[in-house]
Structures
1.
Amino acid sequence: SHKAGLAGVDASWANRVIEEASRGSRFYQAAQQKAAAVADRASALAASAARLRASPTAAAAAAARADAAVEAIEAGERDLTRRIVHVDMDAFFSAVAERDDPSLVGTPHAAGGMHMLSTASYEARKFGVRSAMPGFIALKLCPALKLVPIDMAAVKATSARMATGVFPTFDPTFTMASLDEAYLDVTDYMARRPHLSLDAVLTEIRSAVAAATGLTCSAGGAPNKLLAKLASDVNKPNGQAVVPASRDAVLAFISPQPVRKVPGIGKVTAALLGGLGVTTCASLIARRAVVVALLSPRSSGAYLRAALGVSASAVDGDGAGGRVAPRKGASRESTFAPTADAGALAAVLDRVCVKLAADLGRLGAAGRT
DNA sequence: TGCACTAAC
DNA sequence: GCAGGTTAGTGCA
């Protein structure tokens, strides 16, 4: 219910409908087992935290280490000098479909098919329909829902229009984070226009996106990428928000945010943190001693940084919206009906390998082992 | 080096 | 009747 457009949904009703449609399926069985395993891990973490607190010396040492970690981040990593923008298209695949087929305007529809939805129109979201939901379950929530196949060529062309016609004006080094999200560093752009506020720049960018694509987007402006991304969600859809470049403003913005909203913290990690009494960024800072003591240095460091509103400001894309880092892998997978028939399994492997080999041929790459 | 797990879109 | 596909990072053996 924290996703855009889902706030007004009767969650208990929607959950009941989904539960009824799911009960008895292998998928649901597996999901319940996984959820139970995660709950076990969370309570094990909670028990570790209780043991730590029961030992005054260990607790004091953990607290000292956590304080030192926070001080190091504050002393060396907080950067308020850049003006970063995150642009996020509203219900992108569905918006493209609606633009190209006006009969969809104002109706509940979703991009995808019976097996999986990529996104849903805001009209459909009122019924609890959302991305990553199978179409056949969405239809139980909203019988009038229209499933619209994804026109990937139109989606890519629309994305390319922003990448070539809009973003370079504001920042030639912008990065496309996906087909419908981009990061821009508008510090230099603003230096050339001293009269413009960051809020005014967001308005300019959103107007330019609308003119180039015929679609609405939301935008966030802040001193770094994490805060800009969170800010772009605040007034979604078709809205914008700014986090001022002061430590106080940053902490005021980040503190009440649920840790689940931090990119990199998914359902499982949020549940594990919950076992430590952590739900919001403020509570993560409050419980920093157990976080630092019980999680890996990489994980706890990343979470402390996020909860303090500290993150990278460098956008450093190639400006063309292409891939910045070199490719590290290529893979193919396909879901198939359960079977113990060796011939059927071999056929699945064969199909997948043939496709992967073709991909590697196009990439000029080969497997090592 | 390979695998399991987690995460993002 | 029916619950996806691709890429990447982390931690561990």
Note: The longest strand of chain A covers residues 84-89.
2.
Amino acid sequence: MRVDLQGSDLWKRFHEIGTEMIITKAGRRMFPAMRVKISGLDPHQLYYITMDIIPVDNKRYRYVYHSSKWMVAGNADSPVPPRVYIHPDSPASGETWMRQVISFDKLKLTNNELDDQGHIILHSMHKYQPRVHVIHKERGEELSHVRAVPQGDGTRTLSFPETTFTTVTAYQNQQITRLKIDRNPFAKGFRDSGRNRT
Amino acid sequence: MRVDLQGSDLWKRFHEIGTEMIITKAGRRMFPAMRVKISGLDPHQLYYITMDIIPVDNKRYRYVYHSSKWMVAGNADSPVPPRVYIHPDSPASGETWMRQVISFDKLKLTNNELDDQGHIILHSMHKYQPRVHVIHKERGEELSHVRAVPQGDGTRTLSFPETTFTTVTAYQNQQITRLKIDRNPFAKGFRDSGRNRT
DNA sequence: ATGTTTCCACCTAGGTGAAAACTT
DNA sequence: AAGTTTTCACCTAGGTGGAAACAT
């Protein structure tokens, strides 16, 4: 089985600067969104595909403006309720999954520990790593948004180092802001002089 | 097993006037959309839920303005490629289906016999009846958008007389137009004097 | 000080019927 | 004359970062 990250060039441009992702109470999408292509599945078996996001380390960070760098600012906050994003096409046959690019663009990040929308709960100012899970569906098995992914022979877990990010409630590095505005269609209103009329 | 039509009051108001549905080349949604609630499924079995739309009779119609009535205008045009709308949540467990209102609002009608978007192909100026199919998923079975629904013990077919309609490319009865504008949120721009400024 | 929340103008994406143009 | 296609202003629905207000 093989999983390829799509849009890897864009991820690398963000990664070189130090990717930041906004988290809000209501939930905010990631940009870029994770998109993968899978091969080597059994076309006639059923699989769930899910994503979770794990801490990269046990630290809390702060952004130092004059050096444009993230510095350790202490130990991580206490753990947060674990959440799993189950790709909405799940469960589907290997054939179905392999035919398409699998996009996680509807996944949302929140800093609300009491969230009841099924969004992924994270701490602000921490570093995280998204992971993709390919889970062979055994008969009768059901997945939950709020329980850890089942481990074992039927589960493969993949992650891509260039997709790590730091959570923020407002962008710290202006180069990140600029890249987001430049590439995210929904931020088009902030491009060029589009907003220079107030 | 039991299937209840939701929004039945609105359907009846349309039906009393004589429901019309626009069909276009690109595909047009139905308004109202079919919405049903199902009970009596086996919570742990898998089901597909699908919709097709069959001719009510073998006739072609025309609208007579001065009597505000649809009159037979000859025999039906030659049959059209059969299409099935597979509800996007399919397949799902009986438990999942019974927990929600099942909406067919994304289903689209077209008069383009060469349509490749998977929309339901119909003749203009004909009378039709939508049908809901609840299909018990046998292992390995796959459904197709372009083949008839499998018949047999594993399939239940339901229809609601108040949801019959006549296809048009432009509304014939102005009472239908008024009801649509009044109730469809997307037609809000035509309400009251909202458009009386040109 | 530093980080968070709320509100908002500006977008994307796409569903309406009207009107004009087109077809037969 | 009758029906169809195309285009369009006007909506719904919801994803952006900025700015100001708020919190600690």
Note: The mean pLDDT of chain B is 92.
